[in-house]
Each structure stands twice: as C-alpha cells, then as structure tokens.
Amino acid sequence: MAQNVLGGELRTCGTDPLTGFYRNGCCDTGGEDAGVHTVCARVTAEFLDFSREQGNDLSTPRPEFGFAGLVPGDRWCLCADRWVEAHVAGYAPPVVLEATHARTLDWVDLDDLRAHAV
User: Fold this and answer.
1) Are the C-beta atoms of residues 104 and 33 closer than 8 Å to each other?
2) Per-residue CA distances from 47 to 20, 33, 51, 102 (Å)
3) Of 80, 74, 72, residue with least CA distance to 100
4) Which of 43, 64, 72, 116 is the most exposed place for a label (fewest CB within 10 A)?
5) Residue 1's pLDDT is what?
C-alpha cells in the first residue's frame, strides 16, 4: 500500500480529469515514472501560466492523447521537481497532502507542503 506524506494511506487525487502517471486517479509512482508524478495539486491559473512558460503546457487540450487540458481548480498529479520549481518562483499550487505520495519528501520539505495545503 502506497503512503502519503503524512504517513497514511495514499488517497485518490482526481478522476475528472483522470490523473496520475498510471491514470488511476492516484499520485502513485514506480520505476518507470521518470518524472515522479507524486504531488497532488489543485492547479491555479498562475501555476498553469508558469508551467506553460517553462515548456509544459497543461491547459491546452491534446485530444490525440486523450487530454482535455486543465482548468483552475482541477486536481492533477504534478512532477515533484516541477512543484519545487513553482514553489521557488512563487507559483506553487495548493497541495492535497493525503493524496501526495510520500516519495515527494525526497524533493520537498513537509513544512513547505503544509504551508500550501488545501
């Protein structure tokens, strides 16, 4: 059973849109997840703009990949290093701690996550 950053069972992050590296709604990770998609975030317009400026456009629909594009308020499993990058720049989106995988703590201090908790 995967654990969240609080030490409990990893909860579902989001199913509409369906998120997670494994597209199962959870920010679970494994050896094939090179991006470490472990941070359950509730995306904001500011974060989406920041991410697009960094070369990762999460708001434009990509129907060829079955991706409708994110809108502010959607929950999405972000790469841990992208969340850190956004945090340092002042654009970190709120985090759902119960749905954020414990592996995130390899990149992010729990206090920083708690400061951005939903």
Assistant:
1) no
2) 18, 22, 6, 22
3) 80
4) 64
5) 84
* Alpha-carbon distances of 4 from 12, 89, 91, 104, rounded to whole Å: 10, 25, 23, 9
Sign of CA dihedral 1, 24, 22, 59: negative
Tens digit of each residue's pLDDT (9 = 90 or more) over 11-25: 999 999 999 999 999
pTM summary value: 0.94
- Asked if pLDDT for residue 65 goes beyond 90, the answer is no
Handedness of CA 24, 106, 46, 61 (dihedral sign): negative
Strands (E), the chain: 37-42, 75-79
